[in-house]
Amino acid sequence: MFTGARTDDKNLHATSLKGRRLECVTFSTFTPAQAAELAVVERSGFIESRHIGSAVVLDPDGSPLISLGAPEAAVFTRSSLKPLQAIAAMSLGAQLTGPAAALAAASHKSEAGHVAVVSAMLENAGLSVSDLQCPSAHPADGAFRRELQERARAQGDENADPRSPLYFNCSGKHAAFLAAARAIGADTSTYLSPDHPVQQKVAEVVADFASEEPSAVGIDGCGAPVFALSLTGLARAVGRVIRMGSADGAVEETAGPWTAYEREARTLTEAVFADPWTIEGHGRPNSTVIDRLGVFAKGGAEGVIVMATKSGYSVALKCLDGSSRPTSWVALNLLEKAGAFEEAYRRSAMYEDQLEDLFDVIVDPITGGTDSEGRTRVVGMLCLGEDVARIREREQD
Length: 397
Description:
Elements lengths: L11 E6 L2 E6 L10 E8 L2 E13 L5 E5 L5 E3 L5 H10 L7 H5 L8 H13 L17 H13 L16 H13 L13 H14 L5 E4 L5 E6 H15 L16 H13 L10 H9 L2 E5 L3 E5 L5 E6 L7 H11 L5 H4 L2 H14 L3 E5 L5 E9 L1 H4 L8
Antiparallel strand pairs: 1-2, 3-4, 3-13, 4-5, 4-11, 6-8, 7-8, 9-10, 10-11, 12-13
Helix pairs in contact: 1-5, 1-6, 3-5, 6-7, 7-8, 9-12
């Protein structure tokens, strides 16, 4: 049973300033003094912002190839943890295959397809939207939101504002938790409690795959327990999931407790790579990386991301200020510098074109005003930070 850091107010020092409550937690991630420069924002030839953080790249054996900042310091893993949560749910008997398995690990944008799959997950488990305990939200996908609004107006509904827990980006994970609770005959009304059998199983799976005990447990944005791991532990865990779950895995798995979940890892991995749109959405950064490069990618709130190749290389990083702007691009560059991509592929024209196209998808442009034709003008760009840029590419065998 997980017995890590407490989450009650005893862990908080509080003071007040003109009626505002200021709280400082007694546990902490790494500090600015420990961080490395991951990326910079250049505007009109001037370095406007610097993104600092920590990162680690592991080889298929789990040995570190690149280490920046303080990757052994604990971070809240946020939604980057979802593959392990999905595996835990399936191991308890949640019947998830295909897109449903992928949605259990997704931070979806409520496209019509996402919502249809999550609705079916609930129905197949004999549950309903009212059982979901994630917050209510509007669909992040504008097209689907407008479709729902038009449908409501056509039916004469006075309130045409679509808002539901079903549209929250973690609803697939919550549906999987509920299906697992139903499968083992556990209470579905307390499925988010850290003491619930489903969440205890999640804690067990996390420790098994990461080969480390979480140093703290908190409450994620969706209300579920979230664990603090080192970036090394996070990279190790997701690297094992994708390598073990992929038919392309080049290295045989060393015996360990995580190997008990091979079936679930394979179901999840095959589902995500078969339908990359499930993990985030069509044209979204994580889904695009999965689709175009065949690299698993799962971002989380507060600047966390993890990526893993089918052959077992993995990278995890956290941008210390919580920004996600540089995370995907820096993670891909670190994988390349570590030699994670096949030599024939990474030196091909197709690869160069893919990277150029990817940059435009996963990095927002630095803009300023409009040009003579009224188009938004790009006046700068995101560049690799000094600590990343000076890493020499690892020689290929």
